[in-house]
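Sharing a chain and its predicted structure for anyone who wants a worked example. Both blocks are below, sequence first, C-alpha cells second.
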Amino acid sequence: MPFRTALSGLNAASADLRVTGNNIANSGTVGFKESRAEFSDVFAQSYGGISQTAVGSGVRLSAVTQQFGQGNIDFTGNNLDLALNGQGFFVLNDGGTQVYSRAGAFKVDREGYMVNSEAKRLQVYPPQDTTGTKFNTGLVDDLRLSTSEAPPKATAEVSARLNLNANAEAIDAAATPFDKDDPGTFHNSTSVTVYDSLGQAHTATMYFANRGPLQWDSHLSIEGQDVGVAQSLTFNADGSLADPTAAINYGSFSPGNGAEDLNIEFDLREATQYGASFNVSSLNQDGFTTGRLNGIDIDATGVVFARFTNGQAVSLGKVALANFANPQGLQQLGDNAWGEAFGAGEVILGQADTGNFGLIQSGGLETSNVDIAQQLVNLITAQRNFQANAQVISTADTITQTIINIR
C-alpha cells in the first residue's frame, strides 16, 4: 500500500512540476494567464460506505485552473497594439468561429483586415455614422481598415471673426467704384482657401470698403473672378453688427472644372467695427480635399478612427469585448485563445468602459501575469515533494526486504 500511495504522490509532484514549468516557459507570452495545479486526497471506502482504513490512499490531480489576474501593460508605441486594463476578452473571428483572447498584438493583413499573428480577425461593432458616437451593438463584424482615399467635401460655409477700423475714411462708391485690382477702391482684404466638390482648392478673397459711418460694403472674388454683387454690413453705435443673425451669400461661382457650383455662406456675426486697426482673429471654412490614410487611432472605449492626410477622421467601428460568468471554465485552445465551454456560462458581449468591462489601451500590450519569483519557489516545493515521495518508496522497499529476509 505505501508503494501505491507514494506513487500517487510522485504523479502529483510531476504534474505540479509540469504546470510550474509551463508557467515559467510562458512568462514572456503576451496575454498569458498562469495556471495552478489543484490536488485532492484519495480516501478508500467500502461499497457499504464504511471506511476500510483510517489512512488515506494518496493524492490525485483534481484540476488545473487558470488565474485571470491583470498583467502589467508594456507600452510599445504601435497604435495597433491593444491591451485590456480590467475584465474582458477581445473577440476574434477564427474562420467563422468566435474565439477569445487577452493578447492584443494586431497587424493589418494584405486585405486590410486587422488580425493577430494566427490571422484571426478582430471583431468590432460596425459604425452607424462617421462621427464615432453611434454603433450597431447588435452585430459584430471584422475590422477592415479603409485603404481608399477619403472623399472631398465642398465648402459650404466660411466663418470669420474680424474688426473693421472705425477710423477708416469713407470711399464714395459712385465716384470710386470697387476694383479688386485697385487698392484705392477698398480698405482691407482677407483670403481663405475653399474647396469644390472635386476637392480642388480655390482662393476666396473678401474685400471691405467703408461707405460712411457704420456702413461697409463687402465684395468677394474667387480665383480672381468677381462673385455676385456687393453685400452691405451695418454696425451699431457700440461697434457690433446690426443684424448678427444674417449670413452673407454673394452668389454662386462655377469652378470651371466640372465640379458643382460653389455657393458659400459667409458667417460674419462676430464682425466688429472698433476704433482699432483691421484685424482678422479667426477665419475658418468647412470644406476639405481628398485624403489618404495616414494612421489609425483607437481610444480608451475602443472606437477605431482612420486619420487621413486632409485632417479628417472617420470611425471604422468599436472594438467588441466579451466576458463570462466563470472565465476559468473556458476551453483553452492554444495560441493565446480560449473557446466557449459549458462551464464558463453564456458569452456576454459589451463595450469597453461599460459595466464590468475594462478600458482599452492603444499602443500597449498586456504581459503575462506570471510571477517568476513565486514560480521558482513553487518549483523548489514540487521538487522537494517529488524527492520525499521517492524516499517513501525507498523506505517501503527497505521494510519489505527486511520482512522477506526473516528466517
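Comments welcome. The CA atoms of residues 6 and 389 lie 5 Å apart.
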